[in-house]
Each structure stands twice: as C-alpha cells, then as structure tokens.
Write a structure and sequence with these properties.
This protein is α+β, with helices and mostly antiparallel strands. The protein is built from four helices and 24 strands. Helices cover about 15% and strands about 40% of the residues. It is elongated and about 95 Å long.
Length: about 375
C-alpha cells in the first residue's frame, strides 16, 4: 500500500490526468474532514493512494514525526452557564374569585403555607407531581386522594389512612386543617384551594395584583425551586456533552471547581429576531445539591459560571496527533510509520478524538513508534 500527502508526495502527472483525478481526491478529503470534525479535532494531514492492506513503502519521508504515546485521553469542553434557581414554572388560578393577597418576588413557600389568596381564603401549597382537577369529598377515590392525604399526614393531621379513599375520617381531618388555616370548615377540598408543586418554591415573578379578578387559567405568579442550579445552553452540534447523569465541574466567580452532575436535558427553540429563523438549543440543568456545591453557591443569588463537560474519557490508550492520520483509498484510516530511513503506511482503528489527538490501535502500533506528521 502506498501513500502521499496532497501537496508534497504526489508523483508528477500530465495536466489532463491531474484534472480528471481532482474530483475524487476532493471527495476523499472532504469525507475525512467531516469524520474528524465530528470527533472534535482538526485536519487530517495526508491521503494514502491505495494498494494492499499489508502496508506499502512511502515515496518519501514525511516532513515531521511524532511518537505514539500512551496516555489518558479526555474529550472536555468548557461552556458558560448561569447560576439561578432552575426553570421557572407558572402557577395559574383554578377557581374564580378576587385576588386578595400575593407574595413578593424572592419569597419562599413550603408545604401547608399560603401561596396566594382568593376571596380572603388561602390557596395552600402542597407537594406532588400533578395538579388537582376535581373536588375531594367523602366517597371520592383515586391517586389524587392519596396525594392529598399524604400531604395532610405530613402536616401532622391524623384519624385517617393514607390511601386512595376519601373517608369520613379524612373529612374530619380536613375540617380541622381548614379551621387552622382560616378557611370555611366544609370537610371538602374544592378545586383551586390547593396548589401542587414538586417541593418548596421560590417566587420568581408576580403576574397579578391584589383586587384583580381571577378565573381558571389566569397566571398568578412564576416560581422556581428553592435549590440553586446552573443552566447552560449548548448548540445542537455539542449535544454529545449533554448526557443526563454525566459528571461536570462547576466554577463560580472567585471559587474553586465543585463536582456536580447533569440533572435535566431539554431541547428549546429560541424565536429568531426580525427576518431570522428560530434557533434550536440544548438546555442543560445542573442542580447544586451536594454540600460542597451549595456552600460554593450560597453567597450568590445570580451569577455566571464556567461548566466543564467531559463527553468521553479513555485511560491508558495509544494516541497520535490527529494530523498524523491518513485516509486510505480502500477505506478507513492509517498512519505513516517511520523506521530508519524508510516509511510505510499502516492501517489503524480510531477511537476517541480530543485535544488534537486521537486514540489508535492496529498491527505494529506501539508506544514510542514514530509516525509522520506535517511540519
């Protein structure tokens, strides 16, 4: 098998023949560049002209050499992030009435406390993944009953079993709860008198004013969780970095890196400006829930942050500079191995691309072997 660089090792040919071969070589070069770019590296230095897979003598020695190295290879990338409290969700009214009280931006609300008021009665925060959708009264059965009873029990009320059935015991506990919060003691939980969230909330924005009428669907406020999080927007080309559960390093202003992990990965579409197309982004949320991360973020409400992603890591592997790769005419990649005053092309299997290097393996590829590279 023989090989040549595009500019330095091609033998002289008649002008007509060169013109006929220019198209195929351009296609090979473009294919190689695309493959390498997808792996996160630079440009392939040479093309092998073809021949057998046994390895062929090169026409001339390469202009430079590099040694095959054994090392740990990591595909890392640092991106800008924003410290805050994660995605903002919306609390909407489920009942008609007049808004009589609202919290302030920055307030934190926990289970059993009022999120806002309608007609002088509190709309109480409870924990759960789904909203209420029907009144709860004696005889009602379903998972929504169990969700409400679980919250009622957590608030210290008893006399009922936490299950799918709303019994007279549940109604009696509800009347006691209603008395404690200053609501009419009906024993029935009407739709719109309980607001569900995944956990404690922090009021981000207030979208209404006391005295305004409320109706089902009216936006009352925007809220987040109370834990701090870093959010990063990635281009779709960098989606390989965004894997739920992957470890990252977060560095806040004037701070040391702290370990964290990716909790949520979502695709968002950002509307374009006038005359511009919408842009698709990958939004990554990293909750700072470890003790070290919480301590690092405690002094900030909002701040910028550097997030170091590791898309891949290979330990104790053989590597060469990406520029040492050649594209073989019969397919795949090879390197030009230099021994003494001669060199030959050897096919290789490629692995991880990172930091201008690539993992390689193949017959005759060992630590310390010299391979050709451009100057």
């Amino acid at each position: 098998m023989t090989g040549e660089t595009v500019a330095e090792r091609a033998p002289a040919e008649p002008a007509g023949r060169r013109a006929r071969r220019r198209g195929p070589r351009l296609k090979i070069a473009l294919a190689v560049a695309a493959v390498v770019a997808a792996g996160g590296a630079a440009t392939v230095a040479a093309l092998a002209a073809g021949g057998d897979r046994e390895g062929g003598r090169a026409a001339a020695l390469p202009p430079g050499t590099a040694k095959v190295a054994r090392e740990t290879l990591s595909d890392t990338q640092t991106e800008d992030g924003r410290l805050g409290y994660g995605p903002t969700l919306t609390a909407t009214s489920q009942a008609r009435g007049t808004i009589t009280w609202l919290p302030e931006s920055g307030d934190e609300v926990t289970r059993g406390h009022r999120l806002y008021e309608l007609d002088g009665d509190p709309v109480v925060l409870m924990y759960g993944p789904k909203p209420s959708y029907r009144p709860l009264r004696v005889g009602t059965e379903g998972s929504d009953v169990k969700r409400f009873e679980r919250n009622l029990s957590a608030l210290g009320y008893d006399g009922f079993t936490v299950d799918d059935e709303y019994t007279s015991g549940t109604a009696e506990a509800v009347r006691e709860w209603q008395e404690d919060i200053g609501a009419p003691e009906t024993g029935t939980v009407e739709v719109g008198r309980v607001a569900y969230a995944e956990g404690p909330v922090r009021v981000e924005t207030v979208a209404a004013n006391p005295g305004e009428p409320a109706a089902p669907g009216k936006k009352i406020l925007g809220y987040t969780g109370t834990a701090q999080a870093v959010t990063v927007e990635l281009d779709t080309a960098d989606q390989r970095l965004a894997k739920k559960g992957a470890r990252v390093e977060v560095t806040l202003p004037e701070g040391r890196p702290v370990a964290a992990e990716i909790d949520e990965v979502t695709t968002v579409i950002e509307p374009g400006g006038q005359g511009e197309d919408p842009e698709t982004k990958v939004e990554v949320t990293i909750w700072l829930d470890s003790a070290a991360a919480r301590k690092a973020a405690a002094r900030y409400a909002l701040a910028s942050a550097d997030v170091r992603f590791t898309a891949g890591r290979r330990e104790n592997v053989l590597t060469v500079p990406v520029s040492a790769l050649v594209a073989l005419r019969e397919g795949g990649f090879g390197v030009e191995v230099v021994k003494g005053g001669t060199s030959s092309y050897v096919p290789v299997e490629t692995g991880l691309f990172a930091d201008g290097k690539v993992e390689v393996s193949g017959p005759g590829i060992a630590e310390g072997v010299l391979v050709g590279v451009p100057k």
